[in-house]
Structures are given as structure tokens and as C-alpha cells.
């Protein structure tokens, strides 16, 4: 199809009863790019992310993920698609507390029916600077360390795209920067693709592009963003929402 987009949404809408959470969104995310998605509370960011990642089904429209039309798949096939091609990093880390760090990172491979090789898992931990914590449990790590484990877990199956839902939302400034640098490296070093929802203009400035949502629609984009430019745009979006 000559399409460089790893993820593409065509006229995607999602309603909850009468409430239209996202409204006729069309947008693509090119391979090897890092995009931040911003917008006021309730603008549809999470709904967008869930539809784009195949976690949720749009009410109408089409989502194509790594060349596969997600909506044409049944629940089981979508689960397999997510497992094999999508990595997730959440605000709340979502590690399994009973498992060690190394077991948490190996989990996506186990779920995919593969026997994880120790070197493979250790290489992923090395990458996020936590090889020395392999035998620890999540509760024995700081928030930033837990998020780095979550990133290692998100990357272990070499996904076509990594989605972050406020991945730095629970972290202090310095730790947030480490996490953003890791996402940046996924794109710059490995040619991966990352899409991150964030409220933080400083975090968004690490992306190649910022997409702004307001009221379930795309309200603008910013290429090569700076934190100041993003913050300025957000102020106007807020104002725009209030007068509607
Ligand atoms: N499961 C659901 N059932 C009903 N309404 C929902 C559901 N999920 C989201 N909504 C509504 O859809 C709209 C968009 O919500 P969404 O969570 O996508 O926004 P958001 O931009 O991620 O917000 P926030 O920044 O506050 O997390 C909101 O009005 C919300 O109340």
C-alpha cells in the first residue's frame, strides 16, 4: 500500500451512549517517529489510545495497525495482535507484584507461547539499566525503576509500536526524563514507533510531533515541539473549550 504508517485511523469515532468521545478522527503515525497526544481532560485522549492500540473497538471507522485491519479481527485475534505487535507503558506501571523483575519482563514472551531466553531478557534489562535488579520484586524498586522495568517488558517482544498512557505521570522530573530518553532511544536507535498521551508540555517536547485533541477531534499539530510552544497551545485549547 506504500503506507509508512505503523498505525492509521480512518474516520474513527467512539461513542458511549449519546456521548461522542472521539469524533471522526483520521490520523497516521509513521514508522520511526515519536508522537505525543495532548488535550484537556475529557478531550478523548484515552479513548483514542485504546482504539489505536486495539484495546477497544471504535463505533465506526477503521484502524490499521502494522498493516492489519484491527476491526476485522475477533477478540481473540486482536489479543494476539496486541501481544505480538504492541507494547504498553502505563502511568501506574502495572507490574505483577508476585513476580520478580526478570519474570515480569519475560511475561509477554511466555504469553506468546515462547520460552524466553535468559540472555534476551537480561539484554532488555541491561538496556534500561536494571540488570542488577533482576531478582527483585517490583515493591523493592523506586517508581522510576518500576517504569523502566515496564519499558523493558513493553519492548521485549519487539513491538511495531509502543503506546504510553501518561508514562511519566507518576514520576519526578529527573526520573521522567530517564523514561522519556528511553522512549526516544526506541525511536532513534531501533527505528521503533512511539505514541504517548501526556499532560506535561515538557514530556511532549521530547516527541517529534504533538497532536492536540479537543472535544474528540484533532485541534492542531506541532512539529519539533518546544515545551513553551506546547504550553502556549494548551492554554489556547483550554480557552477554546471554555467558550464552546
Ligand atoms: N467507558 C466509558 N463510558 C462512558 N463514557 C466514557 C467512557 N470512557 C470515556 N468516557 C467519556 O468519554 C470522554 C472522553 O474520555 P477520555 O477518557 O478519552 O478523555 P481523556 O482526554 O483521556 O481525559 P483525561 O485527561 O481526564 O484522562 C469523556 O467525556 C468521558 O467521560
From TrEMBL:
Supply the alphabetized keyword list. ATP-binding, Nucleotide-binding, Transport
Residues annotated as domain ABC transporter: 7-240
Q: Which GO terms describe its molecular function?
A: ATP binding; ATP hydrolysis activity; transmembrane transporter activity
User: Per its UniProt record, what SMART domains does this chain match?
Assistant: AAA (SM00382)
The family database entries (InterPro entries) matched by this protein are listed as:
AAA+_ATPase, ABC_transporter-like_ATP-bd, ABC_transporter-like_CS, ABC_transpr_LolD-like, MacB-like_ATP-bd, P-loop_NTPase
UniProt cross-references to CDD domains, sorted A to Z: ABC_MJ0796_LolCDE_FtsE
According to the record, the signal peptide region is none
Q: Indicate yes or no for the key word Magnesium.
A: no
Q: Which residues lie in coiled coils? A: none
Return the GO cellular component terms, semicolon-separated: membrane protein complex; plasma membrane
Descriptive protein name: ABC transporter ATP-binding protein
| Classification of source organism | Bacteria, Bacillati, Actinomycetota, Actinomycetes, Pseudonocardiales
Amino acid at each position: 500500500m506504500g503506507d509508512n504508517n505503523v498505525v492509521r485511523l480512518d474516520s474513527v469515532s467512539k461513542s458511549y451512549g449519546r456521548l461522542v468521545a472521539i469524533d471522526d478522527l483520521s490520523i497516521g503515525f509513521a514508522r520511526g517517529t515519536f508522537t505525543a497526544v495532548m488535550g484537556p481532560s475529557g478531550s478523548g485522549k484515552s479513548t483514542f489510545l485504546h482504539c489505536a492500540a486495539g484495546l477497544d473497538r471504535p463505533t465506526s471507522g477503521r484502524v490499521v495497525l502494522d498493516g492489519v485491519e484491527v476491526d476485522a479481527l475477533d477478540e481473540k485475534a486482536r489479543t494476539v495482535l496486541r501481544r505480538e505487535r504492541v507494547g504498553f507503558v502505563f502511568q501506574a506501571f502495572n507490574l505483577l507484584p508476585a513476580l520478580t523483575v526478570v519474570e515480569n519482563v519475560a511475561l509477554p514472551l511466555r504469553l506468546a507461547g515462547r520460552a524466553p531466553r535468559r540472555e534476551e531478557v537480561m539484554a532488555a534489562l541491561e538496556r534500561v539499566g536494571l540488570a542488577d535488579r533482576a531478582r527483585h520484586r517490583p515493591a523493592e524498586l523506586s517508581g522510576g525503576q518500576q517504569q523502566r522495568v515496564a519499558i523493558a517488558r513493553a519492548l521485549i517482544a519487539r513491538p511495531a509500536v509502543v503506546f504510553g498512557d501518561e508514562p511519566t505521570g507518576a514520576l519526578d522530573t529527573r526520573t521522567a526524563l530517564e523514561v522519556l530518553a528511553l522512549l526516544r532511544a526506541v525511536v532513534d536507535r531501533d527505528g521503533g514507533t512511539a505514541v504517548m498521551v501526556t499532560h506535561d508540555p515538557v514530556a511532549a517536547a521530547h516527541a517529534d510531533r504533538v497532536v492536540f485533541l479537543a472535544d474528540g477531534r484533532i485541534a492542531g499539530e506541532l512539529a519539533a515541539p518546544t515545551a513553551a510552544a506546547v504550553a502556549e497551545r494548551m492554554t489556547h485549547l483550554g480557552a477554546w473549550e471554555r467558550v464552546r
